[in-house]
Design a protein that fits this description.
alpha/beta; BirA Bifunctional Protein, domain 2; 3-stranded mixed beta sheet; 8-stranded mixed beta sheet
Length: about 240
């Protein structure tokens, strides 16, 4: 039986708001605001922006000159993982689960299997496989990466799925990462990445079907304090 989740329908125009919404849900679930029921949120940015992992180094991962020339902002999320380019054609999924009573979420590797297993099953694409520590690939080409943020009471797992993304933009704005999974075999971005052959509506429908909808999540709290503290704060975004 599929795990029941509440759905959050909030999507925002500003990149800072979308990043803050994921963190706000992590806080809410950890505080018991959903009655112990997990939350699923899907969102896509209409604007290009780069998001670093919590400990990512822009100097290693980003072509700063290209970003400045094209006015592509560089932000930082609260989860770990690598640097990604967000924009049209890249769908994000966020799953926020309470830790109490969920033994499968205690270990990092086990929790990635827990979250990505339903995604693999729901997408049902020939050749789809988990790769590396937290990727999904078609054959040997990556289309999805994931990262997590944990508190004492909840975990935020969020991932990206490329479905109609201009992959040449990734090569323009992101450097080849210094740390790479073995299966990448030092390939360039264009040789390593791919889009899944699914339209946006179909992709969203399959992801929602991976879990059993138990209703709508409570309204998000005001995001202004989180945005001011992190996502619009240069001290946070430029800290490495």
């Amino acid at each position: 039986m599929a795990v029941e989740v509440l759905t959050c329908a909030d999507e925002f125009e500003a990149p800072e708001e979308n990043l803050a919404a994921d963190e706000a849900l992590l806080i809410a679930v950890g505080q018991g605001a959903t009655g112990g029921i997990p939350v699923l949120r899907l969102w896509e940015s209409a604007r290009l922006f780069i998001v670093l992992g919590a400990s990512g180094h822009a100097a290693d991962d980003v072509d700063g000159a290209a970003c400045r020339a094209d006015r592509v902002p560089i932000l930082r999320r609260v989860s770990g993982g690598g640097t990604v380019l967000q924009g049209p054609g890249c769908l994000n999924f966020a799953l926020i689960f309470p830790l109490d009573g969920n033994a499968a979420l205690r270990g990092i590797h086990e929790s990635y299997r827990f979250f990505l297993g339903p995604v693999v099953k729901a997408l049902a694409l020939p050749g789809i496989e988990p790769r590396g520590s937290s990727d999904l690939a078609l054959g040997m080409r990556k289309f999805s990466g994931s990262a997590q943020k944990r508190t004492t009471r909840a975990v935020l797992h969020h991932g990206t799925i490329l479905y109609d993304f201009d992959l040449a933009l990734i090569a323009r704005y992101l450097r080849e990462p210094p740390r790479q999974p073995d299966y990448r075999s030092r390939r360039s971005h264009l040789d390593f990445l791919c889009n899944v052959p699914l339209g946006c509506a179909e992709l969203r429908g399959r992801l929602r079907a991976a879990w059993a909808e138990a209703g709508r999540a409570p309204a998000l709290p005001p995001l202004g304090p989180l945005i001011a503290a992190r996502y619009a704060n240069r001290a946070w975004n430029d800290r490495f």
